[in-house]
Each structure stands twice: as C-alpha cells, then as structure tokens.
Amino acid sequence: MEKLARKQVQQLTPYLSARRIGGSGDVWLNANESPFDNSYQGAVSSLNRYSECQPKALIEAYASYAGVKPEQTLTSRGADEGIELLVRAYCEPGDDAILYCPPTYGMYAISAETFGVERKTVPLTAEWQLDLTSIEAKLDNVKLVFVCSPNNPTGNLIRREDIIALLEMTKDRAIVVMDEAYIDFCPEASTVDLLEQYDNLAILRTMSKAFALAGLRCGYTLASAEIINVLLKVIAPYPVPIPVADIALQALSEQGLARAAEQVATLNQNRTYLGEALAAIDGLRVCEGWGNYLLVIFPNGDELFKAAWDSGMILRNSPVENGVRISIGDRTECEKVVDFIEKFYL
After folding, report:
1. Would you tell me how many other CB atoms lie within 10 Å of the CB of residue 58?
2. Are residues 61 and 165 in the same domain?
3. Does 145 map to a domain?
4. In sequence order, what are the residues at sequence separation of 6 or more whose Cβ sits closer than 8 angstroms to the Cβ of residue 45?
5. Distance from C-alpha of 79 to C-alpha of 206, rounded to nearest angstrom
6. What is the mean pLDDT of residues 45-56?
7. Which residues carry this modification: N6-(pyridoxal phosphate)lysine (predicted)?
8. Boundaries of domain holding 239
9. Cα–Cα distance between 143 and 172 in angstroms, integer?
10. CA-CA distance, 77 to 233, in Å (whole number)?
11. Which residues are CB-contacts of 292 (< 8 A; sequence separation ≥ 6)?
C-alpha cells in the first residue's frame, strides 16, 4: 500500500512533534505549552448538527482582540492548518515555491513537500535576522515567504524594518506570511498594523500558547479580505467543532482575556528568571527570547539533552548546534531545570 502513495509522500519524513518524539518524566518543557490548565465548560448540545465553517461570534471576538476587521480573519485547526491552506491555495505543485529561513519552524517545509511544492531556503544571518539580499536573489517562482517572529527555535524578533523591506520587495510577486504564534508574549512587536498598507501580508496566530489551549487546536489567519476569500475556497467545510468554538469564545471573553494577560505576565517573569539563572552558569549562552521558551547553547548540547531526558526532564533538542530549547514552565519547573543544569556542570 505504501507504493500506491504519491512519490512525494513516500519520500516524506514527517514532522517530529514533541508528542511523536515521546519521552517520560515529570517535567515537560519541550513543546512550548502553557503550564496553566484552565477549566472550561464546553458545549455538549447540538452536536447532531454540523458547525459553522467560520463561526460568526468567534470570528468577531478574535478580530476584536487582534485589532482587525472580521472579514480579515479566518479560523482553522491551529496555525498549522493556516500554513497548509496558504500552500494549497497559492502554490501550483511542480511550478511554484515557498521560501523560508532556517533555523525556523519545520511545518513550512513539510506542508510544501506534502503538496509537491518546491522549497527554497535562505538561512538567517549570524544574528538570526533576514538575509534580504539573498532572499531577493531567490524569489523567482516563489509565492509564499514564511517569516517567524518571535522565531522558533531561536526566540528572537525579526527586525521590523527588514519585514517592511521584504514586503516592499515582494509586492505583486509573493505573500509574506508572518508566523506570530508567540506574539502574545510581546504584542508590541506584531505586524498586524501593516495589514492596512500591504495586501501581500498574511499573519498566522494561535490560541495554543498564551491562551493555554494547545489541545483545542484553534488558530487564525489575518490578512486582506481578498486573501481570506481565497483561503475559504480550499478550507474544509466544517473546520471548527462546536465545542472548540465555544471554549475559544470563553477564552476571548473579558474574563478570559484578563486571565491570559495575567498568565502571560507570569510566564514572562519566569522566562527572565530562567534566563538570568542559566546565564550565570559558566560556558552557557542564553539567547534572547521573546516567546514562552529560551534557546540555550551548551558546550555539549546533545549530551545535556540526553541526560535531562534520562532523568525525566523532557526538553527539546534544536537544529542549532549544541542548542537546546527549553519551554517556560511554572516557577517550580524552572527551578528544577536550573538545579539540574547546575549539577550537570559541577
């Protein structure tokens, strides 16, 4: 049966999510999840009926939160589906390409490869910023340019002036897709205000991180009404289950937003604590981080990662040499990480 699959699928290596990698332990800091387990009362009636494709109340609530118009908002099964929708809607297999800048999130490449779309890469600079000159040289046949900010796994912000230069460079040629999965931890760095000026901008958002709803699978694409209407042509008929819309609406209520803001502030404080404590250990480089995680460069990253894994502390190894990405947990979890690493280097 495998031989009946499309050639691209036969050769595809699936994205190794945190859950696929597995592990066992009592400190889980490998998936950039929130440590807060908030309670909700989900809708349990009317499940004999299909959900709306784009629930009006949910679209209006998130548009209000993001500061855009409802017609500029599309909800999907996580931001991952948003990536897939953009590739499916805008890229002709065998003709068009996407471009992305590693080290960065792996699903841009996986989604393109799944649909037989060419993948072009321009590595980030030594400072993990965009190499605009090299990007411009590779734009032939590129329909989508993916930029993650804060970038996963490095944690840094991409310079706003470079994002604007990229939008100017790609006018009438390609869509710049800003992945803002972690922007709720630094909302001042969002590019959402640029939607008014650039119709070739699309922004990916999620409720998995700051809203502590990774298991809900609820994401959003913010873009011009024209782009949203194109995506509506290829999205599944019923992408948002009734309980998902109900819980997401609760999270976007006045009370829910206040709770999310409080929890974000706590996680940002914990990130500061973890970064300062690890930076005090000789030989470690703690990279500046703006999301709910930190990338730490160790003298022997693979060895540290395995030792932590064996002890029941599940972190995430990184494509950056000797880099280990550590999600920000509660204060107790952060203290356990610091204690383990200090003892490891004694």
Report:
1. 22
2. yes
3. yes
4. none
5. 6
6. 93
7. 209
8. 56-253
9. 10
10. 16
11. 32, 34, 182, 185, 209, 210, 267, 271, 327, 328
Cβ neighbour number for residue 338 with a 10 Å cutoff = 17
Three-state secondary-structure class, residue 114:
helix
Q: Does one domain contain both 336 and 196? A: no
CATH label of the domain that carries residue 22: 3.90.1150.10
- Residues 249, 260 within the same domain: no
Place of tokens 């440590």: 35
Where does a domain end: 204, 238, 253? 253
Alpha-carbon dihedral 314, 320, 321, 325, rounded to 10 degrees: -20
3-state secondary structure 173-229: CCEEEEECCCHHHCHHHCCHHHHHCCCCEEEEEECCCCCCCCCCCCEEEEECHHHHH
- What's the pLDDT tens digit per position in 191-213? 999 999 999 999 999 999 999 99
Question: What global pTM score does this model have?
Answer: 0.94
Q: What is the pLDDT of residues 323-341, one digit of tens each?
A: 999 999 999 999 999 999 9
CA 308 distance to own-chain centroid: 25
pLDDT single digits (tens) 104-149:
999 999 999 999 999 999 999 999 999 999 999 999 999 999 999 9
Q: Among 223, 253, 283, which residue terminates a domain?
A: 253
- 323-334 residues labelled b (16+ CB within 10 A) or e (exposed): bbbbbbbeeebb
Q: Measure the CA–CA gap between 238 and 77, rounded to whole angstroms.
A: 10
Q: 3-class SS at 27?
A: strand
Rg (CA), the chain: 20
Q: Cβ neighbours of residue 30 under 8 Å, at least 6 residues apart?
A: 18, 21, 23, 314, 315, 316, 325, 327
| Cβ-proximal residues to 297 (8 Å cutoff; 6+ apart), any chain | 284, 285, 286, 287, 320, 321, 322, 323
CA distance 296 to 261: 26
Q: Which residues contact 167 (CB under 8 A, 6 or more apart)?
A: 176, 194, 198, 200, 201
The answer to whether the CB of 86 falls within 8 A of the CB of 139 is no
Position 61 scores a pLDDT of 98
CA distance 21 to 305: 13
